[in-house]
Structure formats: C-alpha cells, structure tokens
Amino acid sequence: xxxxxxxxxxxxxxxxxxxxxxxxxxxxxxxxxxxxxxxxxxxxxxxxxxxxxxxxxxxxxxxxxxxxxxxxxxxxxxxxxxxxxxxxxxxxxxxxxxxxxxxxxxxxxxxxxxxxxxxxxxxxxxxxxxxxxxxxxxxxxxxxxxxxxxxxxxxxxxxxxxxxxxxxxxxxxxxxxxxxxxxxxxxxxxxxxxxxxxxxxxxxxxxxxxxxxxxxxxxxxxxxxxxxxxxxxxxxxxxxxxxxxxxxxxxxxxxxxxxxxxxxxxxxxxxxxxxxxxxxxxxxxxxxxxxxxxxxxxxxxxxxxxxxxxxxxxxxxxxxxxxxxxxxxxxxxxxxxxxxxxxxxxxxxxxxxxxxxxxxxxxxxxxxxxxxxxxxxxxxxxxxxxxxxxx
Length: 391
Ligand SMILES: *Cc1c(COP(=O)(O)O)cnc(C)c1O
Fold this sequence. Notes:
By secondary structure, the protein is an alpha/beta fold. It folds into two domains: 213 residues, Alpha-Beta Barrel (TIM Barrel); 130 residues, Lyase, Ornithine Decarboxylase, Chain A, domain 1 (Beta Barrel). Helices cover 27% and strands 23% of the residues. The protein contains eleven helices and 21 strands. α8 links the parallel β8 and β9. α1 packs across α3 and α3 crosses α4. The longest helix has 20 residues. The site of pyridoxal-5'-phosphate has 12 residues, from α9.
C-alpha cells in the first residue's frame, strides 16, 4: 500500500554527489595552498597534502532521507566513515549492514553504552564525564575503545575547552581502555561569510593540536567550511548537507550536485470557491473572484511547514501554483484557478522537478528562503508517515 504523498530518494544522485565532492577535494588539493604567516602548521606538514578522506554525515535519519539505504549507499560510494548523532542511530546503521566505522557525534555521559561495544561504534569523547563513562564500561569488557576527541574552539556546545586542555586532557589520554583515533572540532559560523569566529576557531584548533602529542587524523569541516576554506580540510572532512545535493545558504558552489530527495503527491479533490468564500482553518484565504482550489493530501503531520501558507508553491501540470489558506495536519489547499483540466490523480510536486525549465523546479533552498528557515529543517522534518521510495 502506498499513500499518494511519497518522498523519492535518488541513490544514484547521492553517490554522484559523494564522488563530486571527492573530486572537488582532489582537484583543489593539487593547487598550491597558500598558508598565511599566522598559520604556522601545528603538525609537521608536507607541501603536497593528500586528498582528505570523507566522513559522510547521516544523522537524523540521513537528514530525513532514510539512514539505512543512504548509509549503505555512501559506504558503497567509498565513505571512509559514517557519522550520526547517537548510539541508537548507529545501531540502525549497523543493522542495515554498514560495516565501515561509525562515529557518534553526541555526548554519551548519560547514555546506555552497551551499543558502543555490541555494534562496534566509535564514540566522541567531548566531556570528562563521557571519558569516565566509556572507560568504566570498557574496562570490565577487557577492550580498548577507539574514540575521537572533540575540542570546543568556540561553539560552546560539546567538547573540551581549547583553553583548558592542560588540565582536562591528561586524564582522558591516560585512560587505559581508551585509544585516541582522531581529534576534531566544529565551526559555529562556517555559513556566515566573513564572521571572525571562523578564523578564530581554526587557529584555536591548530593551537590545541600542538598540545596533543599523538599523530592522529584531524577533522573540522562541515559542508560550509569545506566550501569556504581548504585550510580546514585537514585529514578528513565531514559533509552532511552537500551529500544530499543541497548547498548551505548563503554559500554558492561549483560542485556539480544533484538534489537527492523529491516530494510528490496527487490531487485528491478540486473545489470551486465563489467570491467571498474562504478555505481552510481560520478562514484566512478568501476568494475575491471565483477561484478553483485543489486539495493535496500532505500537511504539517508530514513535515510541511505552516509558513508555506505565505509564500509556498507547488507544481501541477508543470506550472507553479500558490498554497492558499492554512496548512492542515493532513492537507494543503492550492490555488489552481489559472490551470485548466486539473483533476484528481494529477501529480503534485511539493519539492523537486516537473519539467525541464528552471521554473519547473522547487528546490529546498528556495522553499526554505520563502518561509524563513534553513534547508536542513525542511528535509529533516519530512514525516515518518511519508514512504521513502529509493530509485
Ligand atoms: C551535522 C554535522 C556535520 C555536517 O554538517 P553539514 O552542515 O550538514 O555539512 C558535521 N559535523 C558535525 C559535528 C555535525 O554535527
């Protein structure tokens, strides 16, 4: 049984995006990198750096795309490692057949840690209490648990403060059942062009690295940082959004990416409105002249944002038509007065393409901009009720 509203996830596009990102990293890597004098590299670094590896970020059910199929596809495409938010997400990936290392981003101090060991997941150690918790869980099992160390360089969320490492690190690095495998940080303003915190964080990270003896891989770059500054590629990059074919606004990119998800539905009913009649909860859209409305069976329970009422469009018969009236739990209403011959069963594109022209596409960035949010939120919120069809 399939509902009218479905999310199509194009795994070939996903893999192609992964390869395009890798090619971008490889090509740009062959160009000489100019390091400003203040960028004294903390680790001895040869001039010809190798192309960074890729940790493919598949947290939040792979940004709503479905982490099981997406995780396996990215592993096939060559991701060095996958990353997700918590142990539960890591277990889903393992059960789906992912064999590559899986990094858990989240804080683990209050989690049940059994899954780390049973499913061979790699924790992030970002607080002293997480270090103690994982050490305490690893010791009786007689195992040494590899981990990535997170440094807080200015996000002030998770991670060991960059300016307090001398006090906090010895305990962690000295834990007998923990093995440091990589060091990382996370940028707060990679997608805020010109924000000074970005460079501050980079320099603090490099300073912090000088205090860690071990020669382990370093990583820092999310999608925006990867696009913005090759100096923060280090040994591994961590793109999420780019993999799904979306460039984080307001940045631009020349990487040839394809959108991975599209969201389509079908018209279920067509209704005439007479002048003065309104449609939907709150009667917020009133017809001035005779209007024709199509009812589309997807609403806020499916992740459609209430703000689509002002500024949202869908495609029907290759034309853009506005959402009118309130977004309901299970339905939206769109104004098809200017279209002819719309009938129940006609395809409705909520996100994606319906034709070759540029205006026959509703992309996630445009949708986010129209309603004042970010593309991340739109794809992550596509509801559990919507079937993901993999093509
Ligand atoms: C989500 C996340 C990423 C990926 O971010 P994008 O902006 O989607 O590329 C990278 N690193 C960490 C720690 C994250 O939480």
